[in-house]
From TrEMBL:
This is F-box protein At4g22030. It comes from Hibiscus sabdariffa (roselle). It holds the Pfam family Chloroplast_duf.
Length: 417
């Protein structure tokens, strides 16, 4: 009986150990389950790096959204921003290709017109030296020279109308601004949580650039000879304007009363010096271009009429002189790219207008908490004007002293242009 109980005790104890061991065995793998959780993120980063998207796709796109986070709205805005980014990249390619094409136009048309004008001028000079006995030869030279002068007149009038060098500068500016917009969208995608407002803002900027720098020549081409220089505007106009804040300025969001005073003084310098100077230079370039654009076809037309007249040698001499002047004028206008110079001044005037409006619209926001951070905004303005922060503050001091003393400031706001 005792042996039977002992055997039962051994059997029961051994079976209980086996059951206990069987139950406790599944606890061991739990130690090895926690480290592999990092592998999906590492894998996604490796795939993104391999396809070149590590700089544009945020690393937290595939993470699980937190409670209360509008993941669906953010993902939709992200997808729309990528679609806009693709359109911007396509715009950059289009403006680059068309800019190269129009640069070729400027070179080929100028060379062709000059060759025709100089050939006709040479014929006119030769015909002036031929005596009256060579009637057939003289008639042939006169007809050929007149035809070349008439052809040069038509081509030069067309070239002066479209101003290829100015068109090329428009495409250069559009390419640079679309690249700048693309970088802004990439930065927003990388470091921010884009919303539908960001998508709408990006769309408005793309459409504003399309309107400011159109690609077609017929119908929507920018006016090449306006009455006065008007600064280029490539940013969307604000739909409403905030009332100017006249209360006490609190030291919130990096803004202080001194910083507001500094920004207002910078705006005054831009208005009194930079914008005024570039508009003055742009209007001068516009007047010179108008005179040259009218003089070239007029001179070639006079040369054609002189060769077609029956004044003999005097008509040929007059035609030769007019043709030589016409060639000089067209070379100075299109070889010197006077239209491009005017467009450069117009674009620079637009840049200063943009800086001025961005500062004024920021200061007009009454709630300083809704403004961009003051220190960051000050740094951006300083970089746009090619200055350090200390130089920007020194410029504001000079502007304030000049207004108090009633003397003109002797320094421009920008050191880039």
């Amino acid at each position: 009986m005792a042996s039977l109980q002992a055997s039962n005790f051994i059997v029961s104890s051994s079976s209980s150990k086996q059951i206990h061991a069987a139950i406790s065995v599944p606890k061991l793998p739990r130690i090895r389950l926690s480290p592999p959780k990092l592998q999906p993120k590492m894998l996604s980063e490796e795939v993104n790096t391999r396809h070149g998207f590590i700089n544009t796709v945020p690393k937290d796109v595939h993470r699980t959204p937190l409670v209360g986070e509008t993941s669906s709205v953010s993902m939709a805005a992200l997808q729309q921003l990528y679609a806009i980014l693709e359109a911007v990249a396509d715009r950059v390619e289009m403006h680059q290709n068309i800019g190269e094409q129009r640069d070729n136009w400027n070179t080929l048309l100028l060379n062709s017109i000059n060759m025709m004008t100089l050939t006709a001028t040479t014929m006119a000079g030769v015909s002036a030296t031929i005596g009256g006995g060579a009637g057939a030869s003289l008639l042939g030279l006169k007809l050929a020279s007149t035809a070349l002068f008439l052809s040069a007149t038509g081509m030069l009038a067309l070239m002066n109308k479209i101003q290829p060098s100015q068109l090329v500068e428009e495409q250069r500016n559009a390419t640079r601004l679309f690249k700048q917009l693309g970088n802004q969208i990439k930065t927003l995608v990388d470091v921010g949580s884009p919303t539908q407002d960001d998508v709408n803002d990006a769309m408005e900027k793309v459409l504003a650039l399309d309107k400011a720098y159109p690609l077609p020549l017929l119908g929507v081409m920018l006016e090449k000879f306006p009455e006065n220089l008007q600064p280029a505007v490539w940013w969307p106009m604000p739909t409403h304007k905030e009332k100017q804040f006249k209360g006490e300025v609190k030291s919130d969001n990096g803004w202080t009363k001194e910083l507001e005073m500094e920004m207002r003084q910078v705006v005054e310098v831009i208005k009194r010096k930079d914008s005024e100077d570039y508009e003055r230079l742009g209007n001068k370039a516009l007047k010179i271009n108008k005179v040259l654009a009218k003089s070239g076809p007029l001179l070639t037309g006079i040369a054609a009429l002189a060769m077609g007249s029956s004044n003999g040698a005097w008509g040929a001499i007059m035609a030769a002189g007019a043709g030589a002047l016409a060639s000089t004028v067209s070379t100075f206008e299109h070889g010197g790219q006077v239209g491009m110079v005017f467009e450069m001044y117009r674009n620079n005037a637009g840049f200063f207008k943009l800086v001025q409006e961005s500062i004024e619209s920021t200061l007009d926001e009454s709630d300083v908490g809704r403004r961009e951070n003051g220190e960051l905004f000050e740094m951006k303005v300083a970089l746009q004007l090619g200055r350090s922060i200390s130089e920007l503050r020194e410029l504001a001091k000079k502007s304030r002293y000049s207004r108090v003393e009633g003397t003109p400031i002797d320094e421009f706001a920008s050191k880039l242009f």
